[in-house]
Design goal:
alpha+beta, Alpha-Beta Plaits, elongated, binds iron/sulfur cluster
Length: about 120
């Protein structure tokens, strides 16, 4: 009993151990693995990220030029970002917002301008 009273009295003069969420939002740590983002302008639709993904969360449609991620299937391992030859995938440090339905996120990859090839003149 005396120990408990001592604890209660000392706690009265300490700062609270918890933050006043949502008034005071918590900062993400820099190394937090959150959601994957893509810079579609650099993507070449090679499909490596899709093949390497252990959760089969990424789908590539080369005909429609789309890159799709099933955020609810993604386990935030970051392997796709490590494997991308164009470094166009980034692991952001914010989590995907909770939802009541499974949502997928799709981006359309713009077509790259064709590089003209030089032919030797005769
Ligand atoms: S690995 Fe990179 S360049 Fe290839 S399809 Fe995925 S995001 Fe695009
Ligand atoms: S972070 Fe991992 S699970 Fe998520 S899409 Fe990339 S490879 Fe797949």
């Amino acid at each position: 009993m005396p120990k408990m009273i001592r604890n209660v009295l000392s706690s009265l003069f300490k700062k609270p151990a918890t933050a006043m969420y949502p008034v005071k939002k918590r900062e993400w740590y820099a190394a937090t693995r959150g959601h994957i983002e893509i810079d579609q302008d650099r993507c070449i639709l090679c499909g490596i990220c899709s093949r390497k993904c252990p959760a089969s969360a990424i789908t590539i449609d080369k005909t429609a030029r789309t890159w799709t991620i099933d955020r609810m299937a993604c386990v935030q391992c970051g392997y796709c970002a490590e494997s991308c030859p164009k470094q166009c995938l980034t692991v952001k440090n914010e989590y995907t917002a909770p939802d009541t339905v499974k949502v997928t996120y799709t981006v359309t990859v713009p077509a790259k301008p064709k590089v003209p090839t030089e032919t030797p003149s005769s």
